[in-house]
């Protein structure tokens, strides 16, 4: 089961990344960084790493590249000058808005092979499995401490 889920995930990511690169000139990883910066304006690099599930060096390089492209703005933290807070620029906001519109079409196309009931069941199952895995990981971390 985990192999099949991983395979589906990789196929989906590859397809979506190719789509966003063709349509908007941006890869899926970069888009995720921008979307999270839009959802949590001022988020730190540490928080971003938690959200995108990438290593610090990879995340840092993505942030730098997006800032150079004028899509992301970095500001020194007010509470801690060692931290950078991340914000979308107006160009970043516009790009993210466009990708949400086109992404909805892509997702509907992907899920079109399922009935509405199957989509709801899949959604509930993903939430349930994710919650169980998070609880298991937190329990494992607590026993190590």
TrEMBL record:
GO molecular function, one term: DNA-binding transcription factor activity
InterPro entries: HTH_MarR-typ, MarR/SlyA-like, WH-like_DNA-bd_sf, WH_DNA-bd_sf
A biological process from GO: response to stress
Organism superkingdom: Bacteria
Residue span, HTH marR-type domain: 1-131
One Pfam family recorded for the sequence: MarR_2
Name of this chain's protein: Transcriptional repressor MarR
